[in-house]
Amino acid sequence: MTTWNLQETRCHLLICNGGSCMRRQADEVTQAIRDEIKVLGAVKQIHTTRTRCNGRCEDACVVIAYPDGVWYKDITPELGRLLVRMHLSGERLEENIVYSYDQSFIASGRSVTGTDKLSC
Fold this sequence. Notes:
Layout lengths: L10 E6 L2 H5 L2 H14 L6 E6 L11 E4 L3 E3 L4 H12 L8 E5 L3 E3 L13
Parallel strand pairs: 1-2
Antiparallel strand pairs: 1-3, 3-4, 4-5, 5-6
Helix pairs in contact: 2-3
């Protein structure tokens, strides 16, 4: 198993590979993002992780950027490549933001809010 040195990492992209996202090109989105990172020589600055379902199936394909805490919806391979370039320059893909973080997650209004989680 690999243990990466993340000391130069500025951005961590979590790419949903759950069922709904897989049906909406998650494999291709993942590959496009990783290819763009390599092309731009940003392997040390941007780390990627494939995840299972993130619970935003209506927004598939979902990509989450940390440490910013930004949740993106409807990401295609083309938008994935653009997302990499924008995050490297400190920008965001505003029209695809579903949630952003500022002490708590704030809905952008560009998608359904979703179902409230039940208390345990």
